[in-house]
Structure formats: structure tokens, C-alpha cells
Amino acid sequence: MRKEILFSGFGGQGVILASVILGRAAAVYENLYAVQTQTYGPESRGGASKAEVVISDEPIDYPKALKPDCAVFFSQEAYNKYLRTVREGAKVIVESDLVPHRDEEFEKKLKVYALPLTGIAEETTGLSLTMNILTLGVLTAWTEVVSREAIEKAVLDAVPKGTEEINLRALHKGFELGEKARTEGL
Amino acid sequence: MRYPFPVGRSDFIQGDEAIARAAILAGCRFYAGYPITPASEIFEAMALYMPLVDGVSIQMEDEIASIAAIIGASWAGAKAMTATSGPGFSLMMENLGYAIMTETPLVLVDVQRGGPSTGQPTLAAQGDIMQAIWGTHGDHSLIVLSPATVQEAFDFTIRAFNLAEKYRTPVVLLTDAEIAHMRERVYIPNPEEVEIVNRKLPQNEEEARLPFGDPHGDGVPPMPIFGKGYRTYVTGLTHDERGRPKTVDAEVHERLIRRIIEKLERNKENIISYETYALDDAEIAIVSTGIVSRSAVRAVKILREKGVKAGLLKLNTLWPFDFNMIEELAEQVKKIYVPEMNLGQLYHLVKEGANGKAEVELMPKIGGEVHTPMEIVERVVG
Amino acid sequence: MYLKSAYEIRDKYLRKDMLPTIFCPGCGIGSALQYTLRAIDDLGLNQDEIVWVSGIGCSSRVPGFVNFDGLHTTHGRALAFATGIKLANPDLKIIAFMGDGDAAAIGGNHFIHAIRRNLDVTVILINNFTYGMTGGQVAPTALKGLRGTTAPYGQFENPFDIADLAVSAGANYVARWSVFNYLQGINSIKKALSKEGFTLVEFLSPCPISFGRRNRMKTSPELLRWYQKITVPLAKAKNMPPEELEGKIVIGEFADRDRPGLVREYEAYKKRAKKMMGWEE
């Protein structure tokens, strides 16, 4: 079982943190092997940002994604750059407000779940910043790459003290949306 | 004893962080460093942990001073470490030679990045292999370890301290920017699970009088550390068994340098470490070290699926080097490929080892990216 | 002050098998060494709790001749090594024997940073305006016009005033004498060894072979007479206009203060860390 998950967007959206939380959920709370790698743009705020997580039940050789099984796109630039690197049939989450121009042709080969994630996060918690945690909820419930308990524990490990409740609210909203995608067979 | 990080369980941390935690568990209580990408996270973790475990972490004025300080600390009895990257590693060459000459146990981590000079500060490379082995002037030997995963970065750091103490020698841990910043599952053992080796101390007056002799016949003299009444004199000049400078005596010089080299050479079976994958019936061998080995394992799997009898030899230590093992491998296989993140360094050692028994081909890659498995596969199948 | 015989000091503190020393006839290093050993003796310090540290140069060979723990290191780096020794075992007292080139040229950065940190160390600095061991090249302390093999027509650069530098960088104790001022020298070293933090005693020290010979002072007495001419006691210098001090070297005690040393600062830092992390009250 080797699963590759790609997170991408621009700096400040919490792309890297989301990938670290997912890796931690797998490695620490699911007892799976996991590795997370990242690349930054020229600036840590605003530049292009990409992170990859590889999860497996056996030791991981090549630590980077070869053909991602899941991908998250938070920006048009990231979408344009990385969409065509995912494998056929990959589950892809797109921030629909931030990715207005879509590659409909290629998306036919994928399972795409497009949502105005930032807006939903803002509605749910009052903070658009919680968008990355909400997305982890969507990803977890939809793909079941890790359990909800594991991701919840990893989120609590990672977020600043005093923000636990808000982040859990975002995560649970994500579960709801992911569950919907899963039951609808997306 | 209380630890400033969880022990006895797995964690999900960066390679740099793993090295810092391993050092603490290995008994390191002195760290001196100078900020440099991509090694700074090791220093930052040590800065956080050391005061809590009654150790020292200090930011020196440069890398020359950093290695100097850890040599001083080692002679005062502490297990000591510094970490740096290419530009700092170059500055450390002077005192790395001093540590070899004075047989000072220490661990020096070099997180390789693209060079020469300032080069590519944030990107990985394997361009310091030759420098780690041969960088300081004069005839010498030391131990060089090379991890490929975050778990290995952790495990090899502990091993580095133990080897340094056992053989009274500096040990270089050669990692790279990729492993430094990659987060991976690592098992952090309970302190009771960690094997700890401590340096030999003099057991009597006679041994204390010969800090650079060979009273046990193993080439490794006990170390009369400072402040115990031994009145040890330590110098980087050529010295006799008692430590007295003898700078124009050819015999003394040869005896000293040969012992320093041979104490590792004759223990090399206990020092050298490697792993193989699908090598038993291989006709094509890949020899690699560090992060590239992870691409190479995957490449071997793909090649086997294609019906190519490929196998991997992954070197965990780069020095001492087992030239005989490479020659035996060369007798078994038709061809040896050496993928490395430079324009040919490990390649030269492998070629010397192969001794003409098999063709050795370099697969160089520079610029900061690790070889992809397919790059290796395509090179082999053409 | 009662002075023991030099033989008594020699027998008690020098390694007999290392004698004779490498120092040339007329060299001042032996005098500075004798003053240091007398200070240790007078203070009754434990020989086994002192480590002598040095870099490279004539004066750096001193730790080899004294019967103490000693670390003879690389050129200019003595204080960086000393930082490790002292912090790893604060019970040890460190004496660094350094030369002018060692401390102010190749080791200049280590020197000012060791002072900035207030590393607990006593530096005995031999200033002979030259690189004696390598054959008389100009040192960073050489006054303008003095000759060396690398400035055969007379030094054209400005000199460092090492004592002044140490005061500015924050040393707890700084004094400068010529080796001719033996009582002041011994007393300064005693003071230096008794204090916490960075302490420095600089000696103008004759090097007739590599330095004097190239500057029309072939013997040690000639050099000492020259020191008498160019040195000005601090009290007198205070009332002299700058023009008159041009080309002169002020001697005396330049700093005597009690800022906390590095060891004490680090101990407090460890306590702060444990408190901030909730490990201790």
C-alpha cells in the first residue's frame, strides 16, 4: 500500500502544515510509514508552495511522489503546474474560488471535488486561515487514507494552544463534506 | 533522567531534529555551532534541549571556533558535536586535522548542499564526499557515515558517538539538505535501549603517561582527560607516545601517523556497514550512498519487473572503505552503476575497488534534485 | 614581596624532560612565564585544576614546558578551544599563553568574541611586534616604521593596541607592562587569576633575534632601554596631549571590573530555560 498525496498552493495558506499533520497522523497515530517533503517558492509568504506526503505499510524507498493518488490545489498557479502530474483516477480537491480556470479535458480522467474551501472555512469558524485544516477533514473522510481519530490527534498536536476548538470545528466540517463525496461515490 | 522530547515511541520529525535528539540520547552534552542552511535546525534543537539536560549549547563566532570548542570540550571529558554545511565544513578542515592528530573523539555533522562556495544553500548534494574523507591536509584517517533516511540519521548519529569514543577519533556524519528537512517516521528509543560506548580512560599512572601510545595493543590509547591530575600535554605537532613534540624525528612521525591510520584500518570490519538489495543473483549492480540509495532501491524493483537482474549495494559508511568487497562484487556482476549527486566522487572509490573486473559507470546529477528512479532505470536499460 | 628562588619555581612547575626551552637568548617569554608561575605559587592554586592553552608561535610553546594539563592548538584558535574546556568543566581554571600575531591577527575574531562573552580565562599575551618563530615578519602590533621581513622598508600599516581593544570589547581586567616591570607584572597576573571573566595581562617582550636585529637593537638590554623610552605610565599619559603620545605605548592597569563571567551567565541561562519550560520553580 503506497499512497502519495500532493498539497499545493501559495505561501501562507498552510500547505506545508497540512502535509505535516497528515504525515504525523499516519506515522504516529496509525503506525504506518510516512515521509513528508516540501519545496518553497522564493518567499515563504505568497510564493508557490508544494508539499508531498507518502504513506505506506512498508518502509518507503523513494521519498517523493511518483504519481500522486490524491492532490489538493489551493491556487491557479499550483493547479496549472501540478495537475497533470497526478495519476489517472486520482482524487483531487480544488479550491474552486482560487482556481477559476480549469483543465476540463484532463479532469475527466480524475475524481475532482471542487469547493470554495476558503469561504466555507470562514463561514464555519470565522477564520479563513482554518481552510487547510478543513481540507484535511475533507481529504480524510473522502479518501480514508488515515482514520478520523488519527487526523484529529495530529491536528491537536500541531495547532497553537487556544485554537484547538476552532480547528476541530473546521476539521469536522471537512469530515462532513468528505463523507458526502464518499457516499455519493465521487 | 528527564528528556525534553518523547522517548520510547515513534515521532514524525525532520532529519536535522532527529540528529539532535540522537545526540542527546547518545550522551552528547556539548554543542558548539554557527548558523548555516541547511544545518541550522540541528543547532536550534540543541539550543532548546541542552540547557534542560544540563548540557552546553553555544553559538561561536564561526565554524573554525565551533569545532575548536568541541575539541576543547572533549578533552574536558564531554561528548561533543558540531554541525555545518559546505562553506562551514571547509572552514572546519583545519581543526578536523587537529582532532585527528590529537585523537579527539567528536562528531561533526556535514549537511551537504550544492557547492562549491555558497552554491545552492537550500538544495541537496553529495559533493562533500571526497572532502569528508580527504579534506584536511596530511596523511590521515577518520570515520565517515552516510544515512539515507531520517531513521538512519538518528541511528547513525548514536553510532557516530560510539565509534568516536571507541576509537578516539573524529567521526563525520555526512547527510544532505534533503534528509535534513524531510519529515519521516522515526522511532526514538528509551534511554535504556540505546547502546552507549564511552572512551577508555587511563587505569593507572603508566597508561596516563602514554596518552598517544598503544598500551592495549589495539592502537587506541586511553584518553587522560583534563582536570584529573594526569598533566597531559596535547599538541598538533608530531609527538611521541608521551605527547612530547618531536617534529624532526622521522621515526616518531611515521609511528604516530601509521598508528592513527591503522587503528581504524584494522578495525574496519567493525566499522564498515552496508546493506544489499537483490544483489545475490544480480548481473547489474548499483552502488550508492545516502538519499540516492532510496531512488536506487526503487529503480532495482522496476528493473527486476522488467526482467533485468539488478541489485543494490548501499554504503552506510564511506570511510574506511572496503575496496575488496567492491572487487568481489565486480567479479560477480557485468556492470556497476554509481548514481550520485555530484560529478563523480564515490565513483572513483568504486572504480578503484572494481580493479578492472567490471565496467563502472558514473550516473552524475547536480543542481539539487535527487535522481528519480526512472532516471536510473533508463540509464541501465538504455 | 618575598620572591622564592627561580630554581624552586622551575623545579616545582616545569617539565624537566622538556628543557631546555626553544626560546632564544634574550627572549622575554621566559620572564613572563616565570611571573605567571610565581603568581600561581603565591595564590596557592591547585596545579591539577589549571589547563594551559595556546595557539601557534613561540609563546604558544609554553604549555609544553609547564607541568600542567595543556592544549597546544592551531594558530589563533586557543580561546575557541578554551571556551569548550571551560564550559564543559567550569572547575578548571584556564590560562592562555598567546602571541601578538596569534591573538590580534589570525585569532583576532576569536579574541574579541571571547572577551565579548567574558569567557573565564586569563590571557598572558606576549607582544614582541613580530612573528618570531617564522623569522621576523611584521605583526599587527608593530608600530609604524618598524621593520620586519615582510615590511623591509618599515611598517606602513597602523598597529592594534591590544589592551585598548580588550577594554573596549569588555574584559574584566586588562593590564600592560614590559617584562622589565616584574613586580607589576606578577601582581597583575595574580589579580587576573583571582578574577572571574576575561582577564588579560599584556607584556612588551624582547625578541632580539627576529625583531631587534632588524631594528638596530641587537640585544635584549637595548630593547628594554627602548621600552623605557617608548612606554608611558597611565597616570602620566592622562595628562599628555595626543600629539605627545604619538608613537608611545601606555602601560598600567586599564580595566578592573566585575561583570559576570560566561560560566556564571550560562548557569543562570540553564536555570532560566528550566523555569521557562516548567521543569523547575
Q: How are the strands of the biggest sheet of chain C laid out side by side?
A: 2-1-3-4-8-7-10-9
Q: Gyration radius of chain C, to the nearest Å?
A: 19 Å
Overall helicity of chain C: 25-40%
Radius of gyration of chain A: 15 Å
Could you say what the CATH architecture of the domain at 2-117 and 143-156 in chain A is? 3-Layer(aba) Sandwich
Number of structurally distinct domains of chain C: 1
Q: Tell me the span between the first and last alpha carbons of chain C.
A: 50 Å
- Which CATH class of chain C is shown? Alpha Beta
Topology:
The complex is a heterotrimer of chains A (186), B (382) and C (281).
Chain A: E1 2-10, H1 15-29, E2 33-40, E3 48-56, E4 70-73, H2 76-82, E5 91-95, H3 104-107, E6 111-115, H4 117-125, H5 131-143, H6 148-158, H7 164-183
Parallel strand pairs in A: 1-4, 4-5, 5-6
Antiparallel strand pairs in A: 1-3, 2-3
Helix pairs in contact in A: 1-5, 1-6, 4-5, 5-7, 6-7
Chain B: E1 9-14, H1 15-26, E2 28-33, H2 40-49, E3 56-59, H3 63-75, E4 79-84, H4 86-101, E5 106-114, E6 120-124, H5 129-134, E7 143-145, H6 150-167, E8 170-176, H7 177-181, E9 183-188, H8 205-208, E10 233-235, H9 250-265, H10 268-271, E11 274-277, E12 284-289, H11 292-305, E13 310-315, E14 317-319, H12 323-332, E15 335-340, H13 346-354, E16 359-364, H14 373-381
Parallel strand pairs in B: 2-3, 2-4, 4-5, 5-8, 7-8, 12-13, 12-15, 15-16
Antiparallel strand pairs in B: 1-9, 5-6, 7-14, 11-13
Chain C: H1 6-13, H2 29-43, E1 50-54, H3 62-65, E2 69-72, H4 78-88, E3 93-99, H5 100-106, H6 108-117, E4 121-127, E5 130-131, E6 137-138, H7 162-169, E7 173-178, H8 182-194, E8 198-204, H9 220-230, E9 231-233, H10 234-237, H11 242-245, E10 249-256, H12 262-276
Parallel strand pairs in C: 1-2, 1-3, 3-4, 4-8, 7-8, 9-10
Antiparallel strand pairs in C: 5-6, 7-10
